[in-house]
C-alpha cells in the first residue's frame, strides 16, 4: 500500500477531469462519485484498477478530491497490489500513486 496527500491550484472539477484523462490511458475507472455539499463545495471519489504484470496482481487506486477548505485537496491510496507469498508488489502501488502526482506536478501547492 502507498498513499499521498497534496493540494493543487486547480478547481476540484478540473482536477477530477485531469485525473480521469491521465489515468484512463492505462487503468480502468471502476467508480466515480461526486457529493455536492452546497455552496460550490464537493467531495469526490474515483476508484481505478489496473493489472500489473510485474506483481501478477490487480491494484486498486482510490482518489478523493475535495474543496471543503477553499483549496482543492487530494488523498490518494493504492492497495491490493501484492498477492505473492512475500507480499511484494515490486513498486506497483507506488507507481500507481505517483502517476497522479506527476500528472498534476505543475499545479501542486506545497
Task: Summarize, please.
With 110 residues, the chain is an alpha+beta fold. The model has no long low-confidence stretch (mean pLDDT 86). It has helices at 12-23, 92-103, and strands at residues 2-8, 28-36, 42-52, 57-66, 72-79, 108-109.
Please state the overall shape, judged from the principal axes of the Cα atoms: globular
Unreliable residue runs? none
Spatial order of the strands forming the largest sheet? 2-3-4-5-1-6
- Termini distance? 23 Å
Description:
It is a single chain. The protein is of the alpha+beta class. The protein is 22% helix and 43% strand. The chain has two helices and six strands, in the order βαββββαβ. A hairpin with a 4-residue loop joins strand 3 and strand 4.
Write the layout of secondary structure elements.
Blueprint: E1 2-8, H1 12-23, E2 28-36, E3 42-52, E4 57-66, E5 72-79, H2 92-103, E6 108-109
Antiparallel strand pairs: 1-5, 1-6, 2-3, 3-4, 4-5
Features:
single chain; alpha+beta; 22% helix
Amino acid at each position: 500500500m502507498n498513499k499521498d496527500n497534496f493540494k493543487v491550484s486547480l478547481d476540484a472539477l478540473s482536477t477530477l477531469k485531469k485525473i480521469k484523462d491521465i489515468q484512463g490511458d492505462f487503468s480502468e475507472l471502476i467508480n466515480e462519485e461526486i457529493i455536492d455539499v452546497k455552496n460550490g463545495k464537493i467531495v469526490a471519489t474515483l476508484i481505478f484498477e489496473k493489472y500489473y504484470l510485474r506483481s501478477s496482481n490487480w491494484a486498486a487506486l482510490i482518489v478523493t478530491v475535495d474543496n471543503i477548505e477553499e483549496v482543492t485537496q487530494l488523498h490518494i491510496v493504492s492497495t491490493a497490489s501484492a498477492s505473492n507469498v512475500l507480499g511484494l508488489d515490486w513498486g506497483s502501488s507506488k507507481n500507481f500513486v505517483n502517476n497522479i502526482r506527476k500528472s498534476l506536478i505543475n499545479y501542486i501547492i506545497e
